[in-house]
Design a protein that fits this description.
Number of helices of chain A: 9
Oligomer: heterodimer
Distance between the termini of chain A: 44 Å
CATH topology of the largest domain in chain A: Rossmann fold
Strand order of the largest sheet of chain B: 6-7-8-3-9-10
Radius of gyration of chain A: 24 Å
Number of domains of chain A: 2
CATH topology of the largest domain in chain B: Rossmann fold
Shape of chain B: elongated
Distance between the termini of chain B: 26 Å
CATH superfamily of the largest domain in chain A: P-loop containing nucleotide triphosphate hydrolases
CATH superfamily of the largest domain in chain B: P-loop containing nucleotide triphosphate hydrolases
Number of domains of chain B: 2
Helix content of chain B: 10-25%
Strand content of chain A: 25-35%
Radius of gyration of chain B: 25 Å
Number of helices of chain B: 9
Shape of chain A: globular
Largest interface: A-B, 40 and 43 residues
């Protein structure tokens, strides 16, 4: 029996329709609708335990969904055995063959398909890939002789060498040091740009998701909270949970309530009372109750000395200087922490009393009951 | 408060291996948090272990407040350590873990209560002081470990990769917290980390090491703005500093950048820094956020010298990887995000002279670096 292709217009690529998964009466995935086009990279972003790995395993055929369907290029593969799917999956646990060298581990998926030996082009291809991943010098080592990061890059090479229908990268660079992570992120992305197959790249790191994904699917507690381009997710997060996942430091969230004034709407919480700028006041009407969250983007805040009506009174709690910018943590008299990103901390010291001003276009408003975004955009 | 000084310290583990630490001269000032930072094998961990008394020195001396300590065992140095895996006593409460170093030293009960109370207040853990530490998140456990290190006012606290077991959010939170606690108590501290973000966030100054050799010790801002050599320039900052060739021109401070088809004028003052050099080869350094990117085309007035090969959105900033048309080399720019440039766009790159660093192309040394 074939289910109707509900929202599935393009038959090419990968589609998931209403996929749910329950383990021992615990719902791990709820009604996942997802499509990844040929050549597209979908970044699957979510905190640990959100269900990212389960979703990858369902696509690979290693788990069966409790309900829902998976389609590949228009064919229902929900019941297809994993070996027939031509899905390349890089496991977070690496799953390297312990008795094979790095080179042989990377070669193994090609050997499984090739009849006779590998063509010379394959060897050159492998060598290039190992060089990009900076493990070419380890080609003869066994996995037991590798560090965690080197094992991860071997597993990544073994996934990237294949020519699959779908590529699944489950936290592919999470165990590398920051320097290498920054470098490889771009290089892998550029390798994948030339590929015809859909790719899912899962990561708990929101910024990594923004960097690598053509689109981003945010998965939290087994539900897709939002799917969109990096700009959508950054500028128009669908909920507080989504907003908190992106940005270093994450967005500041102040819980409070809305108060109707004369021809205006105020946001009031223990640290600040402000009149909402017109655009936010319009979107505040979509909030049913009075409870609201105000989101302050760390790079939309500025510091100044002295008293001012339009600012939040704070004390400097901590200063972290990064050269390019600094993160200043401020504490309000009632005890809310606010983080601010600034190019210049000048003569700022711990304990200084300072005011925080906010740019009105760098504020976000969320429903205090549901956590959903209230902002509407024309 | 105690200053810690490494005087000509070397460490060799065996006759066959090179020096793990080579002739290190380094001062950690009173009350300062100094980070040791470098790639693996740079000698930072060996340096920390020698300060702790866990490794002997091959040569040199370490002074705590002017007093040589290399003959003292670890237990007699009055130091505290904070490890990556917390090392708390799992069967004890938060309060008892913090009190432990005082109990074993026989500090009297009233004094103990006062000092533990101070630390609990500083950590904001007063209300849950009687809870078992195993009930806490990793970040909170590490804060207890820091409290335990601070409670007996040691001469020196050694932090060994204190954040590496924590997730993103907790890491960002504790990073700010360590820096605040250290400033509040003013205890001289040395931090070892491989993560430049952690080092720059927490440290007053950073010592950058490579292959056992100290490269530069400076504030994060100075390391970023004026790296001592091309290794530091590349190591600090993400994406790293652009390094590209320039040629010293004949008139007042003009430098030609052949690959961009651009000249910059650095002025007579800066030109003096390399007046005595015999060859004209320069390596210019420019941070990605200082590279000026303008839309351009094939026309004569604003002719393209590069094309966008890759755009990496990072939320409040976008990185652009650019291919230089003349020689296919690569430069990276960082713009406020989300920016409007897209892959394939032709652009004109300009180099603002004031933001450049000038390195000797042979030695890699910054020509304007004064120690």
């Amino acid at each position: 029996m074939t289910a109707p292709l509900k929202s599935c217009k393009a038959a090419d690529g990968l589609q998931l329709l209403n996929v749910s998964k329950t383990f021992d009466q615990t719902d791990v995935l709820h009604d996942i609708d997802l499509s990844v086009a040929p050549g597209e990279i979908l970044a699957l972003v979510g905190p640990s335990g959100a269900g990212k790995t389960t979703l990858c395993r369902i696509i690979a055929g290693l788990e069966t969904p409790s309900s829902g369907q998976c389609y590949m290029n228009g064919t229902d593969i929900t019941a297809m055995p994993p070996g027939d799917r031509r899905v390349a999956m890089m496991f977070e646990s690496y799953a390297l063959y312990p008795h094979l060298s790095v080179g042989d581990n990377v070669r193994s998926p090609l050997l499984a398909r090739a009849k006779g030996g590998l063509p010379a082009t394959a060897s050159r291809h492998i060598e290039r890939l190992l060089t990009v991943l900076e493990i070419a010098h380890l080609s003869d080592r066994l996995p037991s002789e590798l560090s965690g990061g080197q094992k991860q890059r071997t597993a990544l090479a073994r996934a990237l060498i294949q020519d699959p229908n779908v590529l699944l990268l489950d936290e592919p660079i999470s165990h590398l040091d920051a320097k290498l992570r920054h470098k490889l992120r771009g290089e892998i992305r550029q390798i994948l740009n030339a590929r015809p197959h859909p790719t899912i790249w899962s990561t708990p790191d929101g910024l990594e998701g923004l960097s690598v994904g053509d689109r981003i699917a945010v998965l939290i507690a087994g539900r897709i909270e939002q799917i969109g381009t990096p700009e959508d997710i950054w500028l128009r997060p669908a909920s507080v949970k989504v907003a908190r996942l992106f940005g270093d430091p994450p967005i500041n969230i102040l819980p409070g309530e809305l108060q109707d004034g004369q021809g205006r709407i105020d946001f009031h919480c223990r640290s600040v009372t402000m009149t909402l700028p017109p655009a936010l006041a319009a979107s505040a009407k979509t909030i049913k109750g009075r409870a609201a969250f105000l989101g302050l983007l760390p790079n939309g805040l500025t510091l100044h000395r002295g008293d001012d009506q339009a600012s939040i009174a704070t004390t400097v709690y901590s200063i972290e200087s990064f050269g390019k910018y600094a993160i200043v943590t401020l504490i309000t008299p009632p005890g809310d922490l606010i983080k601010l990103k600034t190019a210049d901390v000048q003569d700022l010291k711990l304990g200084d009393d300072v005011g925080v001003r906010y740019a009105s276009d760098q504020l976000l408003l969320f429903d205090g009951t549901t956590g959903r975004a209230a902002h509407v955009y024309s | 408060m105690t200053a810690v000084e490494f005087q000509s310290v070397s460490k060799r583990y065996s006759a066959e291996t090179p020096l793990a630490v080579a002739n290190l001269n380094l001062l950690c000032r009173e009350g300062e948090l100094l980070a040791l930072l470098g790639p693996s094998g740079c000698g930072k961990s060996s340096t920390l272990k020698m300060a702790a008394g866990l490794e002997d020195l091959t040569e040199g001396e370490i002074l705590f407040g002017g007093r040589p300590v290399s003959a003292l065992s670890a237990g007699r140095r009055n130091i505290a350590m904070v490890f990556e895996d917390y090392c708390l006593y799992p069967n004890l409460t938060i309060e008892d873990n913090i009190a432990f170093p005082l109990s074993v030293r026989g500090v009297d009960k009233n004094e103990r209560r006062r000092r533990v109370g101070d630390v609990l207040a500083m950590l904001g853990l007063h209300d849950i002081a009687k809870r078992k530490v195993t009930d806490l998140s990793g970040g909170a456990q590490q804060r207890v470990a820091i409290g335990r290190a601070m409670v007996r006012d040691p001469d020196l606290i050694l932090f060994d990769e204190p954040l590496s077991h924590l997730d993103g959010d907790q890491r960002i939170h504790l990073r700010a917290e360590i820096s605040r606690l250290q400033k509040t108590r003013g205890i001289t501290s040395i931090l070892v980390t491989h993560d430049q973000n952690e080092a720059t966030a927490m440290a007053d100054r950073i010592a950058i090491m490579k292959g056992g050799v100290l490269q530069q010790v400076d504030t994060p801002a100075r390391l970023y703005a004026r790296p001592a050599n091309t290794f530091v320039a590349n190591f600090i900052g993400e994406p790293p500093m652009n390094l590209f060739p320039g040629e010293i021109g004949d008139d007042a401070g003009r430098i030609t950048i052949p690959m961009l088809g651009e000249d910059i004028v650095i002025g007579d003052e800066r030109r003096r820094a390399f007046a005595a050099r015999r060859h004209s080869g320069l390596t210019l350094g420019l941070r990605p956020e200082h590279l000026i990117v303008e839309a351009a085309g094939d026309g004569a007035d604003r002719q393209a010298n590069a094309v966008v090969t890759y755009r990496e959105p990072r939320g409040d900033a976008d990185s652009l990887v650019l291919r230089i048309l003349r020689d296919s080399s690569t430069m990276v720019a960082e713009l406020a995000g989300p920016c409007t440039f897209r892959t394939g766009d032709k652009v004109r790159l300009r180099v603002p002279a004031a933001n450049t660093n000038l390195f000797d192309s042979e030695s890699g040394v910054n020509l304007e670096f004064d120690t």
